[in-house]
Design a protein that fits this description.
The protein has 215 residues and is α+β, with helices and mostly antiparallel strands. The protein contains 9 helices and 8 strands. A 3-stranded antiparallel sheet has the order 1-5-4. Helix 2 crosses helix 3 and helix 5 crosses helix 7.
Length: 215
């Protein structure tokens, strides 16, 4: 780690401290996006963590490589993402997977139909999508909703105007494009099998899930 210490010593105290915090947040969030939205006004603002990743990209890549990780950059979507064997895997419950899938569907429809300024949803709309697609065929508990919201908030898929525990039916939930990075093929296949077991005659469910997974 001699190279790490030498690089950090060349930075100002403030820059070095901010870089340490950014790397720590990267491990916790796995994603860094260029523009974040004010949680109250939902107006865009620069994300200093993203700017730090841009300035120190080479150093961060070398540092992460030692830990079995890599820093993936999508310049079109303006996203940095932590990947690799060294990244701690997180098991997403089936219910949270369904909710993320619904949010992906909502995001896609809003982007295609109304543009970037319309990417706001709420719990009521998510439930309505769940009902219309039959992906949510039961009433979820508050704990299940909070688990999904906390997961999406932590991984920069959504922005909330307050704490997860305070989210109500009409609370605005801003959707980031990073929601498209989650719910992988394995999760989709698990969903298909789950719904095939519960309702083998319902081909609509499999079509919806498979179409989203193919994108």
């Amino acid at each position: 780690m001699a190279g790490y210490m030498g690089y950090m010593e060349e930075l100002s105290v403030t820059e070095a401290e901010n870089l340490k915090k950014t790397i720590t947040r990267l491990f916790r969030q796995t994603c860094m996006i260029q523009m974040r939205y004010d949680p109250v006004t939902l107006t865009p603002r620069d994300n200093p963590d993203y700017e730090l990743c841009v300035r120190h990209k080479g150093f961060i890549e070398d540092y992460l490589a030692v830990l079995g990780c890599e820093l993936e950059h999508d310049p079109q979507e303006h996203i940095f993402r932590l990947k690799g064997e060294g990244v701690e895997t997180e098991k997403i419950s089936l219910t949270s997977t369904v909710i993320i899938l619904l949010v992906k569907m909502i995001y896609r429809e809003k982007i295609m139909g109304e543009g970037l300024n319309a990417t706001v949803t709420n719990l009521e709309e998510i439930r309505e999508y769940g009902k219309n697609t039959n992906l949510l065929n039961r009433k979820l508990t508050g704990t299940e909703w909070r688990e999904a919201l906390y997961l999406m908030n932590r991984h920069q898929m959504i922005e909330l105007p307050g704490a997860v525990r305070d989210v109500e039916d009409q609370t605005p939930i801003y959707l980031y494009s990073t929601v498209n990075l989650y719910v992988g093929a394995a999760d989709i296949n698990e969903l298909i099998e789950e719904y095939r077991e519960e309702a083998p005659e319902n081909e609509t469910i499999e079509e919806i899930i498979s179409a989203d997974a193919a994108e």
